Amino acid sequence: MRTAYREHLDSFSHDLIIMCDIVHNTLRLASEALIDSELHAAEEAMSLREELDEVRNRCEERAVLLLALENPMAKDLRQVVSSIYIVEDLHRMGRLAQHVASAARRRHPENVVPAEYIGYFEELARLNDDMIRMLREILVTPDPDTALRMASEDDAVDDINHYLLSILTNREWEASVREAVETAQMTRYYERFADHCVSVAGRIIYLSTGLAPEAYMAKLSEEERDKEFESRMAELERQFRR
């Protein structure tokens, strides 16, 4: 029974990686559709919805099976519960990318956002792409320290989002109201995508350490303070002990 349980758990973990790859591909195609007004990329991104839903449903079935097979030990239970939340985050990320693709398809051959602001979305796409790549890395090899780095990427996305929104509310905005609304929607989709990446990273930290991200950061800070104290004491001993 325990061997079967471990096999199901490993299959669940593998499905998360498959799901992450689908989301990454959807994001890449959606960004291409938005930035280059590429209809084929938009349609291809939209076509991945069924595949994403299929893997999500399979993950849900695996979760029920894992919880029903036997009473999992604490670490295994933590992995199953964390994975259930990760599935929902990944599924939502895929849907957000498809919203971008849908807007690009709807407005083709026109651009969704004014041409002078495309550069901001190129950077948003790059940052989100970096984050989903990092996410795959920690799904394959869980590493809480790598997961913590996700927050700095998210801060950069937030900065662009806030800046674009400040432009949209400026009286000197020269584009149409429709373009203002859709530009706000697009930057919001990328911002939310990044937030879900951070959420998954937090689950990985909990899975690896049993601690919430804030508690893990506090632990690292305490360990760093202890190291600094030990270093100072060693230096004092070196200088004055005879």
Task: Summarize the SSE layout with pairings.
Blueprint: H1 2-36, H2 39-47, H3 49-69, H4 74-107, H5 118-140, H6 144-148, H7 150-168, H8 177-209, H9 213-240
Helix pairs in contact: 1-2, 1-3, 1-4, 1-5, 2-4, 3-4, 4-8, 5-7, 5-8, 7-8
Q: What are the key terms here?
A:
9 helices; 2 domains; Methane Monooxygenase Hydroxylase, Chain G, domain 1; mainly alpha; 0% strand
Description:
Keywords: Cytoplasm, Phosphate transport, Transport. Homodimer. The chain has helices spanning 2-36, 39-47, 49-69, 74-107, 118-140, 144-148, 150-168, 177-209, 213-240. It is 86% helix and 0% strand. The chain has nine helices and no strands. The mean pLDDT is 89. The protein has two domains: 1-210, Methane Monooxygenase Hydroxylase, Chain G, domain 1; 214-241. Helix 1 packs antiparallel against helix 5 (118-140) and helix 2 (39-47) packs antiparallel against helix 4 (74-107). The protein has 242 residues and is mostly helical.
